[in-house]
Amino acid sequence: MLKxxxxxxxxNGACGTSFSQDHTIFTSAPKExxxxxxxxxxxxxxxxxxxxxxxxxxxxLADLTSEQRExxxxxxxxxxxESSRAYxxxxxxxxx
Length: 96
Description:
Elements: H1 14-62, H2 66-72, H3 76-83
């Protein structure tokens, strides 16, 4: 006896079963992509937060007086070199 072709998604025939399996495969892909995108956005947000924090620290460093620089143990040249670095030039210990 031949099976009737299924006309609805809720049939118990072969096409209903195969649709369910295909549907599961296709619905998991957007979830994985969304998770990957969320992780990428979170890492980007964290990188920018760190970059602006380092930028602020470098500005504070540039504004130190000579007495404060001596207390920290840095020369004027070291302070100038560090404070003139670009904000995206992050120290390796600050990058995740």
